[in-house]
Amino acid sequence: MNRHSWQPWLFAMEPERAHTMALLALETLAKMPKTRALLWPRHDPDPILQQSLWGLEFSHPLGLAAGFDKDARALPSLCSMGFAFVEIGTVTPLPQSGNPRPRIFRYPKEQAIINRLGFPSDGMEMVARRLRSWGKGSVPMGINLGKNKDTPLAQALADYERLLQHLHPYADYWVINVSSPNTPGLRTLQSVENLVPLLVALRKVREDLADNQRLPPLLVKIAPDLEREEIQELGHLAEDSRGLLDGFIASNTTISRPEGWTYPPEAGGLSGRPLRERALQTLQILYQSSRGKVPIIGVGGIFTVEDAYQRILAGGSLLQSYTGWIYQGPRMLEDIPRGLGDRLRQDGFTHISQAIGQGM
Predict the structure, then answer these.
(1) pLDDT score at 212
(2) Does residue 352 sit within a domain?
(3) Exposed site from 10, 102, 105, 304, fewest CB < 10 Å?
């Protein structure tokens, strides 16, 4: 699937329709294993990039961020394309339609997207049925969790608990999404005073469900719009003796707009190249304040090998892409791992773990 064969066709469509068509094609391929094997043949992983984190094996650091396949419709295809891991969601307990359309806006010149989707979801029961039918994926799979829009903030914990209880047989890792800008009030759950009780309760639920099996790690996804002191407070949670969390994802989309932004003032979260520096800075602060105690997944504005390498040097153990993948096409799933291996060797590293945080 050369990017030049499909990108003009999809980019001629309204953005959400293009997303729907791409997901439908991948959903069809998900049921065609022989065709997938021809389209995306497996390659031997580069040993310099292979990592074991949280008891999971990653062939290289680049995964797919949440948001593309919210409902696990095309999971086998996404696992076959070359991502080292895939994150589905955001999943909500009950089905919900999300915000009114239009709610996705594409800016090709800036290689950016604004979305105000608002967690459209088929709900946890449908997602569980799909995951059960797909079976175990070929790469680690995370589930991104969010509360329903109509759930009061004071009752948000109940939504997250229900999601863990219902989806626990399927997740290789969990992501607690308290940073989407498109669910009213959600970002207030990022404050330490609100987040700590949430994490304490969710760890208890997770442990009660584990039945002596491996405990899927619990990650928190944070916003890039927090003040430095707020990010530092979150980073300090990594040192909490209760082991509140197992990692972070930095970061979600931003509600800020870059200087000189001249487009209509559409509400929503901005992703893509304009997010790159803000997301990088958020990662740096989080890595410093957590002192590298837990792995961090760096996401936001990653398009090139250089973007990816800078995130690793800033403290990212793993990386995710979504908007960059939309604009760059599937070729980036070959280019970035290969280029990272070359850069690491050029700089004298013999394994990726030696480079994490070394640019600080």
Answers:
(1) 66
(2) no
(3) 102
* SS3 label, residue 153: helix
Q: How many degrees, rounded to 5, is the angle at CA 251 between CA 237 and CA 72? A: 105
Give the model confidence (pLDDT) of 287-312 as tens digits: 999 999 999 999 999 999 999 999 99
pLDDT score for 9: 85
* Spatial separation of the C-alpha atoms in residues 116 and 57, rounded to whole Å: 33
Q: Which tokens in the block code for residue 350?
A: 């013999």
Q: Which residues of the chain have pLDDT under 50?
A: 1-4
pLDDT of residue 213: 72
Contact between 113 and 326 (Cβ < 8 Å): yes
359 lies in some domain: no
User: DSSP state, 102?
Assistant: P
For the chain, the domain total comes to 1
Asked if residue 336 is part of any domain, the answer here is: yes
Measured CA to CA, the distance from residue 316 to residue 303 in angstroms comes to 15
Choose among 162, 289, 182: nearest CA to 234: 289
- d(CA 114, CA 328) in angstroms, rounded, equals 17
- Within 10 A of 36 (CB to CB), how many other CB atoms are there? 18
pLDDT tens figures, 25-75: 999 999 999 999 999 999 899 999 999 999 999 999 999 999 999 999 999
In a domain, 211, yes or no: yes
Give me the active site residues, please. 180
Cα→Cα distances 68→18, 90, 115, 150, 180, Å: 12, 9, 12, 23, 15
The pLDDT, as a whole number, for residue 5 is 57
What range defines the domain where residue 321 resides?
3-255+262-347
The Cα–Cα gap between 5 and 232 comes to 45
Question: Residue 250 pairs with which residues in a beta bridge?
Answer: 222, 298
CATH number at residue 234: 3.20.20.70
Residue 33 confidence (pLDDT)? 96
Token pair, residue 94, equals 């009950």
CA distance 166 to 169: 8
The backbone torsions φ and ψ at residue 71, rounded to the nearest 5 degrees and listed phi first, read -120, 20
> 24: helix, coil or strand?
helix
